Amino acid sequence: MPVGLFRVCLLVITAIVNHPLFFPKDNGTVPENTEEIIQKMKEREESLRLEQLRLEQEIADQEATQKALEKAAVVVEESKEGKVRWDMWTALSMVIFLLIELWRQDFQEGNWQDIGGEEDDMAVLGKAFKGVALPDKAVLASFYEKRILGTTGDMARMREMVEGFADDLLEALRSVCNRDADMEVEDCMGVGSMYENWRVRKPFVCDLIVPFAPPEPYCFRCQTWCSGDSFPPDEQGYGTIKVCRADEDVTGCICDKTKLGEDMLCLLHSQVSSTRPSSEMEDLLCFKNTQYLDADQVMKWFQIAVTKAWNRISHKYEFDLSFSLLDSPGALKIKFKSGKSIAFNLTPVVQYENSDVYFISHFPRSSLAADVPSSTHWFLTFAVYERRFIQLVSKTLPANACHVSCLQILSFLHGKQCSLTGPSGLTNYHLKTVLLHLLQARPSQDWAPEKLEARLQDMLKFLEKCLHEKKLYHFFIGNGKVPAELGFPIIFQKAEPLNLFRPFVLRRDIYKKMVDTFHEMLRNMSALINEYTVHIPLAHTNGIRKE
């Protein structure tokens, strides 16, 4: 603006200075042609007016440009403020997302299953079962006393008899085996429902596992799905067992893991020591042309060894011993002359390092290992730790706690329902897993004997939720809250949780059968319980309810 005014003033001064009246010609006379001079002055005036208009237009344009720049600056400032606000909301959203993700991971690691729920909210189980309720405490107590306790009194005597005979049989097995070439068999251990005191269905069957080891100078190198190497999703829960010489360093050289080629030689291992005759590895029960232990070969060897051992000691006993099931190689049956029989399972296992986790060759009477990837893949069993956990928790519970009673009642009802509608994918192991989760989640006082009805409802609601979500996580794998007193291997605590219902996600027919069986069991629960319950006087029942 000041520049424009200066230019206008300069133009006016120049016009005045150059005016002919101020600077006449040399002769000092006034021009004679006045009209011509006036005309020139008008033209000059017109040119000055046009120049003034042009300058005013430039000044207006400059002012408009200045205003536009000021407006643009305001818009930029507002956009910066808006961007700051947007960045703030973006950052806040990211923080919320991270918090949700951290909560989800913590929920998955520590609280896989939503126990939740108060006792008052448990009268009805699920939206599909409105009106379906459990019998009251008096009916449940009478049912348990008559049907459960009345059939489990001779379990202790049966366990004692089976363990004594199994020890004698294994001692004879060691005597018939070649100590320099055959596997070394250790003492057997009892696992499962018979040794956790919750089996209710007859016939009673004792499950015994027998650890074995290779002869010197060989040893087992165990590898699990969570040991670092990649395993497909369908092989989670499995592992492989490699037979190696005790002085062989399988982790220090890569010649055993990669193909070096015909023109390359390992400087640490000679060709003689790195290759073994195929017959030698087959004698060590390995899969053909590999160093991996073959479960089928192990069971064949074990059957032959047990047969030889029985032939050596059969004269001492007044009964017969036979293999009872073709599809379960370790299933044995004792037949007395009176016609009675006792069944038990003797299954060879391999110890994982120095823990009580074992690789098991076959699961007797179970569909858990129905789809084993191959005979060199062994399923891991945590049965010893499960038994120890129940024993450890039982010490902190009230006298005559109801935790075992809940599992026994559910196992009985499920077995009865399967006898009516046929077997399903749901097993007693799934029921026990539900109990283990609840034992860890519930305080000790909640397992008092008078709370049997509430805890039974908890187990049913928990199982119903797991069936709906198709998720029931293994109790030990991925559980960072396992009591330190158990000495449980840390590698399995840090592993990803193992979903026991994963096989049913793709097999919809089995999943549907499992859900239908559970629903039918709920509908028939009262009828099944009342069928085995003695009559309870109405006054006695009302008195219990008032308490």
UniProtKB/TrEMBL annotation:
It is a single-pass type I membrane protein. It comes from the Eukaryota. Its main location: membrane. The gene is Itprip. GO terms for molecular function: protein kinase inhibitor activity. InterPro entries: ITPRIP-like, Mab-21_HhH/H2TH-like, MAB21L/cGLR. Enhances Ca(2+)-mediated inhibition of inositol 1,4,5-triphosphate receptor (ITPR) Ca(2+) release. Gene3D superfamilies: 1.10.1410.40, 3.30.460.90. This is Inositol 1,4,5-trisphosphate receptor-interacting protein. It is found in: Cell membrane; Nucleus outer membrane. One of its GO terms (cellular component) is plasma membrane.
